[in-house]
Write a structure and sequence with these properties.
The protein is built from 22 helices and 24 strands. By secondary structure, the chain is an alpha+beta fold. The chain has two domains: 225 residues, Penicillin-binding protein 2a (Domain 2) (Alpha-Beta Complex); 311 residues, Beta-lactamase (3-Layer(aba) Sandwich), CATH 3.40.710.10. Strands 2, 3, 4, 5, 11, 19 and 20 form a seven-stranded mixed sheet that branches. The longest helix is centred in the first third of the chain and has 27 residues. The termini are far apart. The C terminus is likely disordered.
């Protein structure tokens, strides 16, 4: 009560202070009534027009590594320049007003004074309908033009500052406005470091632009192992997600080939989401992270980076426009150490999409087919490399390797031999003369192995081929690895008598069957290791992309045995010796792969392809080494090559040189890959 006592004493200054305080409280009370009571309905309507939009945020894709942890596919930072339309909203309004005034002035409406308050009020009370000077459709066009002028001016300023031409079409802006207004508009998706520096330094006065940092799939070694890795394509929808769960989806990718496709779900991780608060105009008001994205898992392969480089470099040295494949496999457990297919391509260029010109001039060129993985998808006649199968079938049929067989001369070319079935003649690349098993193998005599194959019979030949699993999926964990083009003869058809001896003769020398380079590598590995058929292994394990995560490592067990060949050890030893002599002997067809301090064992092959006026060759060299303690199988295939010995054997030699120089020079006791 002290305050009122002082007021009653007539203290004028204190009364004035009390009056001012009372007036202040009255103003605050009036404002509170206005906001809470009188403006309640307006704020309720404002809240009702705001909404949350769910945005799918893709996770960082897991890396693909070689056996020692070297990155084959990863993620690199990319800077993107965005324009936030909500920040340009005042500019849209000003530009719209300017354009509208210009149109009204041109129509003479601008010269008339605006109607007074009483006139406008009476027109509303009378509900008079006045014809608008600008229709609603025309008005929407004005807004569209205003937005485009403002944004295009911003883009032009950015173009000047970064020193490169940038274009923005009105249709692109309108599409973004209609479908993704709450998201920023990407103006430049790939900024160089110099451009980032320029914009960071100069763009402080430019409203509405922002530089965003995004992780983007990268392939640091370009085309290296591209057919094994595969590539990505843009895909913003996934069948395992609820289509209606998100209003917007940020740019994401899906694997469409290779390991990127086979392990797409594990590599892409789990997408996160964020909620964007959007006002009645469709602009962003704010955003919150609803659930964070979980990074994808890393994929560790069995590939050896250095060996992969050596294989691709060796294959690229083939004269001409090389088309072929190389497979290097560990014969002890089936691990694929290198897998090269040519022509190759850069999977990184698929991130932003391949232009029509690039597709037409490179990817869609006949015969080249760079997207084709010739390692598993190419089906070729194995030629004389199939004589390994014929040799095993003949030995199991009782063939005496020391017995000689006489090759008759070819009447049209006496320097070469020939085999005669009635009036049908099959040419031989070996000269006429006496041949035992060893000499017939190293000279690759068609006549000798046709005679041995006919005596073994179709059933035994076919059964021996099936023991190597020819004509069956090799199961390398690659998508579509079903060896669809690989083909084996139908046993029922042959047994029903619809096979003539000529077809069986051709089958004996690898002309009535197709195989893939990987299947041939499995066959050679089986011969080298003593008769164990392994499943080819390309993936070693899956690891968490977060080093601090407690996720259990998913291991792919090595050395998974598919079957046992069941051949007698002495028969396999004879074939291994013959493969060694094919390289060591001066008359051997594989002598171009000979190395000092490393005993390579191999078998060459050349298959002719004819039909519809087309003639071509497929050349092979199937090998393993070293002879004393087999460790590696190397298979080389080249389309349109000269011969297996002249074209493919030198490729294998360069690969074995790489292996020898990495510590395999000793003839016994192999060193491990570093």
């Amino acid at each position: 009560m002290l305050v009122f006592d002082q007021l009653n004493k007539g203290e004028r200054p204190l009364r004035l202070l009390a009056l001012a305080t009372g007036l202040g409280f009255a103003v605050l009370l009036a404002g509170l009534v206005r906001v809470q009571i009188l403006g309640r309905q307006r704020f309720q309507q404002s809240l009702q027009t705001q909404s949350y939009k769910a945005v799918r945020v893709p996770a960082m894709r897991g890396r693909i590594l070689d056996r020692s942890g070297r990155e084959l596919a990863g993620n690199s930072p990319r800077y993107r320049l965005d324009v936030y339309l909500e920040e340009l909203s005042p500019d849209f309004t000003r530009e719209y007003t300017r354009i509208r005034r210009g149109i009204l002035a041109a129509r003479g409406a601008g010269a008339q004074p605006p109607p007074g308050l009483w006139t406008r009020l009476m027109s509303r009370l009378r509900r008079e309908k006045t014809k608008p000077l600008i229709s609603s459709l025309e008005n929407e066009g004005l807004w569209r033009a205003a937005r485009f002028l403002v944004v295009s001016n911003v883009v032009a300023q950015v173009s000047t500052r970064v020193g490169m031409p940038l274009t923005l079409t009105e249709s692109d802006l309108h599409r973004h406005w209609a479908n993704s207004r709450a998201l920023p508009l990407a103006v430049l998706r790939r900024l160089s470091p110099q451009q980032v520096a320029l914009l960071t330094e100069q763009s402080w006065s430019m409203r509405g632009i922002s530089i965003e940092l995004q992780p983007v799939r990268s392939y640091p070694h370009g085309p290296l192992a591209s057919h094994v890795l595969g590539h990505l394509e843009r895909a913003d929808d996934y069948s395992d997600e609820d289509e209606e769960a998100f209003d917007y989806r940020l740019r994401d990718y899906r694997g469409v080939a290779g390991l990127e496709k086979a392990f797409d779900a594990a590599l892409r991780g789990t997408a996160g989401s964020k909620s964007i608060l959007v006002n009645s105009a469709g602009y962003r008001v704010g955003e919150t992270i609803a659930s964070p994205a979980v990074p994808g898992r890393n994929l560790v392969t069995t590939l050896d980076f250095g060996l992969q480089q050596a294989a691709e470099a060796s294959l690229s040295q083939v004269n001409g426009d090389e088309r072929g494949a190389v497979v290097v496999m560990d014969v002890r457990n089936g691990d694929i150490l290198a897998a090269a297919s040519a022509p190759t391509f850069d999977p990184g260029e698929w991130i932003d999409g391949v232009s029509q010109a690039r597709w037409t001039n490179f990817y869609d060129v006949p015969k080249r087919t760079p997207l084709m993985n010739r390692i598993t998808d190419g089906a070729y006649s194995p030629g004389s490399t199939f004589k390994i199968v014929t040799a095993l079938a003949a030995l199991e049929n009782g063939l005496d390797p020391d017995r000689t067989f006489r090759v008759e001369p070819n009447p049209s070319n006496p320097a070469k031999g020939a085999y005669f079935i009635g009036r049908h003649r099959i040419g031989d690349t070996a000269p006429p003369g006496e041949y035992d098993f060893r000499r017939a193998f190293i000279r690759s005599s068609n006549s000798y192995f046709i005679d041995a194959g006919l005596k073994a019979g179709f059933d035994r030949l076919l059964a021996t081929a099936h023991r190597f699993h020819f004509g069956e999926p090799t199961r390398t964990q690659l998508p579509g690895d079903e060896d669809r083009g690989a083909w084996m003869p139908d046993g029922d058809e042959a047994r029903a008598g619809r096979w003539q001896l000529g077809r069986l003769a051709n089958f004996s020398i690898g002309q009535e069957v197709t195989v893939t380079p990987l299947q041939l590598a499995v066959m050679v590995s089986t011969i080298a290791n003593g008769g164990t058929v392994f499943y080819p292994r390309l993936v070693d394990r899956l690891e968490s992309g977060d080093p601090l995560a407690e996720t259990r490592v998913e291991q792919v067990r090595p050395g998974q045995v598919r079957s046992l060949l069941g051949a007698r050890p002495e028969h396999l030893a004879l074939i291994r010796e013959a493969m060694r002599d094919d390289v060591l002997a001066d008359e051997g067809t594989g002598k171009a792969s000979r190395l000092a301090d490393f005993s390579v064992c191999g078998k060459t092959g050349t298959a002719e392809i004819k039909g519809n006026g087309f003639k071509d060759k497929v050349t092979w060299f199937a090998s393993f080494g070293p002879y004393e303690s087999p460790r590696y199988a190397v298979v080389v295939m080249v389309e349109s090559g000269g011969s297996g010995g002249g074209t493919c054997a030198p490729v294998a030699k360069r690969i074995y040189e790489h292996l020898r120089d990495r510590g395999l020079s000793a003839p016994r006791g192999l060193a491990s890959l570093p």
